[in-house]
Design a protein that fits this description.
CATH topology of the largest domain: Nucleotidyltransferase, domain 5
Helix content: 25-40%
Order of helices and strands: EEEHEEEHEHEEEHHHHEHEHH
Radius of gyration: 20 Å
CATH superfamily of the largest domain: ATPase, nucleotide binding domain
Shape: globular
Bound molecules: zinc ion
Largest sheet: 5 strands, mixed
Number of strands: 12
Number of domains: 2
CATH class of the largest domain: Alpha Beta
Structural class: alpha/beta
CATH architecture of the largest domain: 2-Layer Sandwich
């Protein structure tokens, strides 16, 4: 892949990371504010301008393609956005390959952002050298992707491997944003953390009970200080993540499971517990699946542009 260079965009609901990438190296990078409640069409001129400036400051004179990692359901086969979860709703109707051709004269490739991150981790990071891998991102929601026999799992409607966070892990559990009940995301993600904390606090009041929105960093901090509701909240979340990990191991038979997302700042507190549970309860005769923290952090999806191009052009 040493000849592949890319313009890469990792588009999320609040910011867009733009970069010029060559093999495992990000040559130039810039983050732009982005508002997912507005049309993507309004953001395209800013993205094109940023990429042109980054390209001008990079020591290369040619790019292989432009790759967009999109925060919704995208089809790499059809090279378009299939559906959004409310962010950049107009994206399903945009001719993005046409925009890319007009702006840069380059081929355009699209992939879901979590899937692109796993491609990056597989080529250059924590899943390097394995054929079968699953990635789970723990943050405001629970995202995921699956790679089998060295290739991202593909399906007609684009969902295969990506909605592991919506596997139900609690019967009779909390209603999730997807409409289902007891999804891992509804039981152990930042979006639902205030509710989970208050449920664990019960009639007693925890240190964080009156806060409208809390993050895992605060819950870990409160637990470190001895707050019982925070300790119970983390215990609940660890059990949910453990059950989810076993479910995904049983679904995809990976060699490794890579964990990314903001919650993994406390990987040293989380992964040994999950590894212990997986060792005891996942049915993988004769071996134990290795659980690893993501190695590339927020750069994973940008670096995933290189293997995506390598597999498509
Ligand atoms: Zn759900």
């Amino acid at each position: 892949m040493s000849d592949i260079t890319a313009l890469a965009i990792d588009l999320g609901g609040s910011h867009a990371a733009c970069a010029v990438v060559r093999e495992s190296e990000i040559l130039a990078q810039r983050s732009l504010p982005a508002n997912g409640s507005e049309p993507l069409a309004n953001l395209l001129p800013d993205l094109a301008k940023a990429l042109r400036e980054l390209l001008a400051s990079s020591p290369i004179d040619h790019c292989s393609a432009l790759v967009l990692g999109f925060c919704g359901i995208a089809s790499a086969r059809e090279n378009r956005v299939l559906a959004t979860n409310g962010k950049f709703k107009d994206a399903t109707g945009l001719d993005l390959p046409g925009w890319c051709q007009r702006e840069f004269g380059l081929p355009f490739l699209i992939e879901n952002d979590a899937r692109l991150a796993l491609l990056g981790e597989h080529a250059f990071g924590a899943a390097r050298g394995v054929q079968d891998a699953v990635m789970i991102t723990l943050g405001s929601g629970i995202g995921g992707s699956a790679l089998l026999d060295g290739r991202l799992l593909q399906s007609k409607h684009g969902l295969a491997g990506t909605i592991g966070g919506h596997i139900p892990v609690v019967l009779g559990g909390r209603r999730c944003s997807c409409g289902n009940f007891g999804c891992a995301e509804a039981e152990a993600s930042t979006s639902f953390l205030s509710e989970i904390y208050r449920q664990q606090a019960g009639r007693s009041t925890g240190e964080l009970s009156n806060r409208k929105a809390i993050g895992f960093a605060e819950v870990f901090q409160a637990a470190d200080a001895g707050d019982k509701a925070a300790i119970a909240t983390l215990e609940h979340c660890l059990q949910v993540w453990s059950a989810l990990t076993v479910a995904l191991i049983h679904a995809y038979d990976p060699e490794v499971v890579v964990f990314g997302g903001s919650v993994l700042k406390r990987a040293a507190d989380i992964l040994p517990r999950l590894q212990e549970y997986v060792g005891a309860h996942a049915w993988t005769p004769g071996r134990t699946v290795s659980l690893r923290a993501a190695a590339l952090g927020p750069d994973a999806a940008l670096l995933g542009a290189i293997p995506l191009i390598g597999s498509r052009l």
